[in-house]
Please model this.
Amino acid sequence: MQNPLSRPALVTSLILLVALVLSGPVLAAKSARVKGSVVDDQGKPVAGMAVKLVPLGTEEGNLEVQVTTKKSGKFLITAVTVGAYYPQLDDREHYIKSVKFIGRGPDGSVVAEFGGEELQIGSSVPSFQLIDGLRAEVQLVIAEGQANRPDEASIQQAKDDSGVLGPLNELFDQGDWPALLEEADKVVASNPELGGAHYLRAVALWQTRQLADAAEGMRRTAEVSPEQPGILGTLGSVLLEYANELREAGQEEQAKPIYLEAADYLGQQLEENPESITYLTNRVIALDYSGDKERTIEALRLLIDARPESMGPFFRLAELLSETGKPQEAIEVIEQLPAGSDDAAMAIYNAAVDMWNDGNMQATILAMDKAIVMAPEIAVLYRLKARANVNLGNNAEAIVALENYLSRVAEDDPESEIDRKMLAALKASQ
Model:
């Protein structure tokens, strides 16, 4: 005969377990392991190259990470906060020619893979999503120069309506920026209203990384020579780089109004070139780093419409919608991605955690059902579904979800101990 005291004891145990669940830490996204390699365009390993992983958004906890390649051209980062990142070189003499991303599950199997193709001039370096527990591999091919910087697409020769500009345009064609700056200074001094000279001087300042002066020069060009092709977009791109420089130097508050100014000019340029991926992408980055979440959401939707094949904007839009109290909209965005995407399933998971924290258990369960259809082998999806069911008193459903979760993790996994105890308590209470 069952001891009548055993049931209340088990129920009490279950209540304690649920209290631990509600405290949240076991649901919090953690970190990913990233290993990578850098080779040149001849396939030779590049040693001593500083590589950054720059967070695509501004959410707290997602910090820029930097590592230097070994003699083999390889690097390893044992823990990176989960989120969306893009790679960047801390070297102005080289650019990223291609990026390949591979995501592996705990058993080493490939769960996500994209990239590897050569980036086109004017294209953005692609971002990728790091997931809790994911083993990520990033393979970079680099080359000398700055050929694929997004802002390069907006640099053009000055309108040659004066013989004075001929020699300057020749230096522009040669890419001799110090000489162009020296000669442009002379022309501007004697022709202060010649917009083309101001423009070429600003380009030279930009290319020699004198960004504050370059921004001022582009502003002057926009005043005296508004007919210069793409001038507003170019000004926006210069301001974006200047704001990035301030931010990287720790001057984030000083950078924010410059990011907003950049976004405004890029928006004006988009009225003339509404399908420009360069301007759309740069505007998203500027608004995101400015901290204006609502305008960033609007800008991301425009970028997605123009470039639906790129997954990064979908993930960032979902994150922002979740952060601004719209997790259901976040899930609707992620549902537009192809089924079977582990990244998409984890984006839904992250939005569902916010629903769970807000006490919306039924929506959490529905979200996990959608995510499980996309990626049925991701264990944490079942764990969150189980805990939402526990909170609703759906013990039978919780038992099934916990069994699914535990069947996908190692028996000695320390993080699953609380779930094993919860499962035992639930079964004993039936």
In short: DSSP finds 16 helices and nine strands in the chain. Residues 31-144 form a domain with the Immunoglobulin-like fold (CATH 2.60.40.10).
